[in-house]
Amino acid sequence: MERWEECEHGEGLTGLMSLALDGLLEDRDRQRLEQHLMTCAACRQEWEAMQQISTLFEASPLVGPSLGFATRVERRLGEQTRKRRRLFGGVALLTSSLSLAGVTVITLMVFGLGIAAWRWLDSAAAAEQETQAVSQVVSGMGLLGRGASLFLGDLLLQYGAPLVLVLGISLAVLVTMWVWLYRKHPNGKRDNGYV
Amino acid sequence: MDQERAWIEQALKGDQTAFGQLVQAYERPVYNLAYRMLGDPAEAEDAAQETFLRAYSKLATYQPERKFVNWLLSIASHYCIDRLRRKGRAPQLSLDGPLPPQWTISKAPRPDQEVSQKEQREQVRQALETLPADYRAAVVLRYWYGMSYDEIAVTMHTTESAIKARLHRARRMMAHQLPAA
Fold first, then answer.
1. What residues 81-120 of chain A have any CB closer than 8 A to a CB of chain B?
2. ipTM above 0.90, yes or no
3. How far apart are CA B44 and CA B29, in angstroms?
4. Are A63 and B56 within 8 A, CB to CB?
5. Which of A1, A58, A190 lies at the smallest CB-CB distance from B60?
């Protein structure tokens, strides 16, 4: 306001005033401030105003909440926990469904590849009737692997990078969701505050 | 202190009753900070409750070498500063800028001039309202909790010199709002 005259010492001395109010002023600075206050009306006015405010604040007691505050907090905490449990349940259901769908697709693929390999082996069996059962099984497994790699190779050739990207992202999302579920399990070990 | 640690450990295991004991023990300092910062009992109640909810969800990050009450006050002050900034209610002042209208203050209470508690509370509220949110928090922590500059700096996640500057500027701002005697 206009009534405040500016002192040429500016903020330096008001800085000392603030420290003086906190009892942190050294003797030399205290003397400097006192001497200045005797000669400067503007700073004296500011100092008195600061003291007035300090006195007002120091005389103000701590204010407490109304009765039953802790109960109200506990109620909100309960609501929050229930909300989190519902969210947890939803995410768990979604993750399980996606994982089940993924496992089903993989099982069907392996099953299909197995049938294809078996048919191929059947046609080749006429020429190799005397081959031992063990070698058949081993070669069957080899063929199964080869069939799978051919199938995946075909897929990659046909759809290329986008497919790899989609599969990678889906896998990462599922893994993240499972990790989240593991960490936030309501009955599990508490991590980062979740109960 | 041992009792406090036991409550914290039980709360970490999910015991909400133990956390309730912590709430009862510290509701007053937390509420007071929220009230001084926000200046409204209903908002202070909400902010204090929110502080305890946040404290509960972050309890695993509490470091026992720190005073628990200071940790709570840190959460409360940050929450109140955010709340004031979101609402745009705290002035963004500098000493060079224009000053808001003056507020009135009674002279320091003398035995023959008793100021009523209500009036005094109103004066404090008006004085604090002239300050930007982070200045306000520094002033409240200094006057009502007797924190040192270092403790305020840790509570507000800043430096000691920043707190020194904030307190100095805050006091100057409030002093400049006083009408001439």
1. 81
2. no
3. 12
4. no
5. A190
Burial A46-63 (b: 16+ CB within 10 A, else e): bbbbbbbbbebbeebeeb
The model's pLDDT over A67-97, given as tens digits with 9 standing for 90+, comes to 999 999 999 999 988 888 888 888 888 888 8
Q: For position A73, what pLDDT does the model report?
A: 95
> The tokens of A112 are what?
């299909």
Coil, helix or strand for A195? Answer: coil
Residue A55 to residue A45: CA distance in whole angstroms = 15
Average pLDDT over chain B, rounded to an integer:
86
Q: Does B42 reach chain A within 8 Å, measured CB to CB?
A: no
- Output b/e per residue, B123-136; b: 16+ Cβ within 10 A: bbbbbbbbbbbbbb
Q: Which chain A residues are closer than 8 Å to B36 by Cβ?
A: 63
Which pLDDT band holds residue B107 (cuts at 50, 70, 90)? Answer: very low
Residue B113 pairs in a beta bridge with B110
- CA angle B103–B152–A61, rounded 5-degree value: 50
Q: Packing angle between helix B160-177 and helix B133-145, nearest 10 degrees?
A: 100
Angle formed at CA B131 by CA B127 and CA B137, multiple of 5 degrees:
100
Using a CB-CB cut-off of 8 Å, the residues of chain B touching A19 are 164, 168
> Residue B179 — pLDDT band, cuts 50, 70, 90?
low
**Considering only residues 108 to 137 of chain B, which have any Cβ-Cβ distance to chain A shorter than 8 Å?**
108-109, 120-121, 123-124, 127
Q: Mark yes or no for CB contact A70/B20 under 8 Å.
A: yes
Lowest mean pLDDT among A87-91, B9-13, B160-164: A87-91
Alpha-carbon dihedral angle through residues A139, A145, A151, A157, given to the nearest 10 degrees: -110
Q: Is the pLDDT of residue B181 over 50?
A: no
For residue B44, list chain A residues with Cβ-Cβ distance below 8 A.
65
Tell me which residue has tokens 């099982």: A107
Residue of A nearest to B53 (CA): A77
Longest CA pairwise span in chain B (Å)? 58
Question: Which residues in chain A touch residue B120, judged by CB atoms under 8 angstroms apart?
Answer: 56, 59-60
Q: Does A65 touch chain B (CB under 8 A)?
A: yes
